[in-house]
Amino acid sequence: MHIKTAPMGWNSWNTFMSEINEKLILESADAMVEKGYRDAGYEYIVIDDCWSMKERDENGRLVPNPEKFPHGMKYVADYIHSKGLKFGMYSCAGILTCAGYPSSYGHEFIDAATFAEWGVDFLKYDFCYFPKNADGKQAYLTMSNALRTCGRDILFSACNWGCGESWNWMASVGAHMYRSTGDIYNAFESMKKIALSQIPHFNCSGPGCFNDIDMLTVGMYDKGALHRGDSPVQTDADYKTQFALWCMLSAPLMMGGDIRNTNDFCHELLTNRELISINQDPDARQPYDFSDLVDSRALCLFKVLSNNEFALGLFNLADKEATAKFFPTCVGFPNYSGAKLLMKDVFTGEEVTVKDYFMKTLPSHDCVVYKVKAVF
Ligand code: GLA
């Protein structure tokens, strides 16, 4: 199977962790459709860890917990498919999953066959309890092969948190996306650290295999267990900046909030068509980071799009107000080119034409993103 653009969907972990059940998953599938997420491009409903019994059955197969999933997984898959969506599940390369459930080490082929039977379209594959003397690359290649030969198209979402600089080899073992960092927390500093650590590695991300910088925390506010006691609850500006960054990087967009109850601000953000079109640009190019060329504290990213247009993102990741500066000459439009840049704000639709320079004062943690066309 070929993945042309970064996968988009929803994952149960960030908000619900072990508190998952059939009702939640079916309601989230309903919300995907009713709240317009499916039409905006979101496709996968993914059940993360804690869905199974603690033991395999007598045939060595994984068993869904009947209290959480009384009708089994095929029923859940059929429901999700009936909504025009795809179904994702979770296992792990080690002996146990991160939450201590049976995992796929030594069971890769039987588990892939089981997932295929249930109608699974996506497998997130974690890295906890991995035997010390075993080879991680081999383990991911083995599950990749099991999925590729199970008779069903199943997207392989590898999740080894970047161990062994996995951005350099996860594509080679057949993953379609790979988590490149440890877990995100519902805190601005966590989001910032993760994004900044990976910007240089997005040259290894694109059609076929995407760098996954973890599920979005957008809309979680104080819900879910991803919160660190001492960090402030994220604000609307924090979420805007996270979503805009993930879009500028063409990273997978896996929503992690309770999509049945997202507030208006986050709903509008998560379904922003202009930002999603930047994320889903068929070239999925790494943005050009020109922050060092301008005298400002902002992160300045310029993304070449496939239709000869561009996207510009100016991000204030600092804790106080900053003025971002933008000179077209820093992004390959020197004065002598004669170009004027028509810039459309993807949040407000406002247009501005820039010839020599542009300045924008950004509140702490806020950002601006423009779609850019050059005219002469
Ligand atoms: C790891 C992963 C998370 C989540 C949990 C589940 O920490 O990185 O994304 O899947 O395991 O236990």
Report on this model:
The protein is of the alpha/beta class and 376 residues long. The protein is built from ten helices and 16 strands. Strands 7-6-5-4-3-2-1-8 form an eight-stranded parallel β-sheet. It has a six-stranded antiparallel β-sheet with strand order 9-10-11-16-13-14, covered by helices on one side. The longest helix is centred in the N-terminal third of the chain and has 13 residues, at 22-34. It is elongated and about 75 Å long. The mean pLDDT is 96. The structure holds alpha-D-galactopyranose.
At a glance:
By secondary structure, this protein is of the alpha/beta class.
Please give the largest β-sheet: 8 strands, parallel
Low-confidence stretches: none
Order of H and E elements: EHHHEHEHEHEEHEHEHHEEEEEEEE
Please state the overall shape, judged from the principal axes of the Cα atoms: elongated
State the strand order across the main sheet: 7-6-5-4-3-2-1-8
Number of H/I helices: 10
- Helix fraction by DSSP (H/I, runs of at least 4): 25-40%
Number of strands: 16
Strand content: 15-25%
Give the N-to-C terminal Cα separation: 42 Å
What assembly state would you assign to the polypeptide chains in this entry?
Answer: single chain
Q: Cofactors and ligands present?
A: alpha-D-galactopyranose
Gyration radius (Cα, Å) is 21 Å
Mean pLDDT: 96
| Class inferred from helices and paired strands | alpha/beta
